[in-house]
Input
Amino acid sequence: MQTMDTVEGKEPRLPDLFCWTDDGFRLKSAKCNDCGSYFFPGYHPQHRPGCKRENVEDVLLSPKGKLDTYTIQHYMCPPPFKTDHEIAPYGIGLVEFPEGIRIAGIIMETDLDSLELGMEMEVFDYPLYKDEDGNDVVTWAFRSVK
Ligand SMILES: [Zn+2]
Output
């Protein structure tokens, strides 16, 4: 699978967290082949006690997971979060991926009342603001699979 750290007109807000592939947008993780742990970010240094973290490989997570828990925020996310959009109210939640790792993120959903635990969610690139070159600076976000 071909992976790209940037695509035309889009720049990641922070490096090494996600990428674009010929099969869509994906979160970058890492897997320990000794103990089976997954990490996010993939470079996260902490590890399971008793495992030496010597057999870790970079992997991409599945594009979809299930909503594990969430809450609705009625105020804007504080700095360093930055966006040009008035997003409140918005969801923030944990999505459990088939690999067994749960990842937190903002939930961009037109109908927040439709959120239900266990529902299928997909990760996508959310444009936060434009940089001086006119590129969308993006982060990851979740939305329900229609
Ligand atoms: Zn391990």
Observations:
- Residues 32, 34-35, 37, 47-48, 51, 53 surround zinc ion (CB under 6 Å).
- DSSP finds no helices and eleven strands in the chain.
- Residues 3-144 form one domain.
